[in-house]
Write a structure and sequence with these properties.
Layout: E1 4-5, H1 17-24, H2 29-46, E2 51-55, H3 61-69, E3 75-77, E4 92-96, H4 104-107, E5 113-117, E6 135-137, H5 140-156, H6 162-169, H7 173-190, E7 194-200, H8 210-218, E8 224-227, H9 229-239, E9 245-246, H10 253-258, E10 261-264, E11 267-270, H11 271-285, E12 293-294, H12 296-310, H13 317-323, E13 328-329, H14 337-351, E14 358-359, H15 362-374, E15 377-383, H16 386-393, H17 395-406, E16 417-421, H18 436-441, E17 451-455, H19 459-472
Parallel strand pairs: 2-3, 2-4, 4-5, 5-6, 7-8, 7-15, 8-13, 12-14, 15-16, 16-17
Antiparallel strand pairs: 1-9, 9-11, 10-11
Helix pairs in contact: 1-2, 1-5, 2-5, 6-7, 7-19, 8-13, 11-14, 12-13, 15-17
Length: 476
């Protein structure tokens, strides 16, 4: 089938914005969008193609002027001028931001074009389920400065640091929120009195962000992880050297089902990967006693110990967590491939007359409470929402109601730092869109005394830049 393997984004091998963007092209989801579009524009410029930009705004005109001065593009026009253009099929076009509905039929006739906007505007049929070439669905005032830095690196050999990118991003409101996220993360991880809890949802390991998590653990940026089960399952697959692959839209899902290639958006997870790790998981599960009751963090620690012993040259989230003594909680443990493995394992136990192994997420509530009350300050860094974020934030009211109902005297505290990256708006009612201000009403966040940043965007595009900023920051 000619499957194209994907690669984990390794920030340790990236010294510039251009390096990160190029690495993103071999990842998944929004990161691949950003990486592939930047590389396509680079190819156009390198081959001397005539490039126009269609843009109806004003915020990016300065950076477009610099691109014209560098002779990367020829002109910037409004969408209402597209109708009268000549050379539709000879010119390459970058369509940036929103444009008039009246221009739709004319823009749809353009030749080779890429679209950069957060409204998911593109030509009919350009986007398919699991396939979205030549688009970046993100805030243009975030994407265009990154594109500029990448082109300047690849074409002029001028390497831009994340700090330099942040200086550019600060010029716009959305960019300011991204910079604020980086500064907030830096502040909380540098505070010697603060423990940072990382919450993860979405398929971030299959998105090839696993090494970003490893770096946060290895460099002591975080002291606890709460994750979905699926995210840890896909991460375990990477940790033993197995691969994920790029989806080819020529293969429909019925064909993929026949080939036992499970699709996650634009990425393929071969079923044989799960078969391979089931043997490892089963071996680890047999290391527990009949009828034993454990928390997910205990199971994850045992997996990390196994990886540290058997896969000494591979990097992995659970391996790093074991080596740095970072507990990995999973409040919805059964909702994953590893949860499936646990069910099958327990069937085997019962077949030979043993009691089932019980994985009880409530036991990890004790881990969370203990860490919350034993640290002076607490910060939270959230990728997406879901159960991991809610369960981790819930520790503050959990301590409060336990004190009230059982006359305990546990120290009550709220999060003093917070940074979240999620695309959802608050009006959807999703936890991903839940604001820190709303959390304050539940006594979870001290938004009056604390430092918080909220970024509405794709974590695969934004998160690596924040972590790299901290990695590069002085005295870290």
């Amino acid at each position: 089938m000619g499957l194209v393997p994907l690669e984990r984004l390794d920030l340790r091998k990236c010294d510039s914005v251009g390096d990160i963007v190029k690495a993103m092209s071999k990842c998944s989801f929004g990161a691949r969008m950003l990486g592939e579009v930047c590389l396509k524009v680079f190819d156009w410029v390198q081959r001397g193609k005539h490039i126009r930009i269609v843009y109806d705004g004003e915020k990016l005109l300065d950076i477009f002027d610099r691109m014209k001065n560098n002779r990367w593009i020829e002109e910037v026009i409004h969408s209402d001028q597209v109708e009268n253009l000549s050379g539709w099929h000879t010119h390459k076009t970058i369509v940036v931001g929103r444009y008039s509905e009246a221009a739709d039929k004319h823009i749809n006739k353009l030749g080779d074009a890429v679209f950069i906007n957060k409204e998911e505007l593109c030509r009919p049929g350009q986007i398919k389920d699991g396939y979205f070439p030549d688009v970046v669905f993100a805030e243009p005032t975030f994407v265009i400065p990154i594109l500029y830095c990448a082109l300047d690196n690849w074409l002029e050999d001028r390497r831009h640091s994340i700090e330099a990118l942040f200086t550019e991003l600060e010029k716009d409101q959305f960019g300011h929120t991204v910079v604020s996220g980086g500064l907030t993360l830096e502040k909380m991880v540098k505070d010697p009195d603060c423990s940072v809890f990382l919450t993860l949802s979405g398929a971030m390991t299959i998105a090839k962000m696993g090494l970003v998590i490893c770096d946060m653990v290895d460099l002591d940026m975080i002291q606890l992880i709460s994750s979905t089960g699926a995210l840890m399952a896909h991460g375990l697959i990477e940790s033993v050297g197995l691969q994920h692959f790029k989806h080819n839209p020529a293969h429909d899902d019925q064909f993929l089902a026949q080939q036992k290639l499970n699709r996650v958006t634009d990425t393929l997870e071969p079923e044989k990967n799960f078969t391979h790790i089931e043997k490892i998981v089963n071996e680890i599960l047999w290391s527990f006693e009949s009828g034993e009751i454990i928390g997910p963090s205990v199971f994850h620690r045992r997996v990390g110990e196994y990886l540290a012993r058997e896969f000494t040259t591979e990097r992995g989230v659970l391996k790093s967590a074991f080596e740095k003594n970072v507990p990995v909680l999973c409040p919805a443990f059964v909702d994953s491939e590893i949860g499936n493995d646990l069910f099958a394992h327990n069937q085997r136990r019962m077949q030979i007359g043993q009691k089932r192994l019980i994985v009880d997420p409530e036991l990890d509530s004790e881990v969370l409470i203990r860490m919350m009350i034993q640290t002076s300050k607490v910060g939270i860094f959230s990728v997406g929402g879901g159960v991991p974020r809610n369960n981790t934030q819930n520790v503050a009211p959990l301590i409060e109601i336990t004190n009230e109902r059982l006359s305990y005297n546990w120290p009550e505290k709220m999060y003093l730092y917070g940074c979240r990256i999620a695309p959802d708006a608050m009006h959807y009612g999703h936890l991903s869109g839940c604001t820190y201000s709303e959390n304050a009403s539940w006594r979870k966040m001290d938004t009056k005394l604390g430092t918080f940043a909220e970024i509405r965007g794709d974590a695969t595009q934004i998160w690596p830049f924040l972590v790299k900023y901290v990695m590069d920051s002085k005295n870290f």
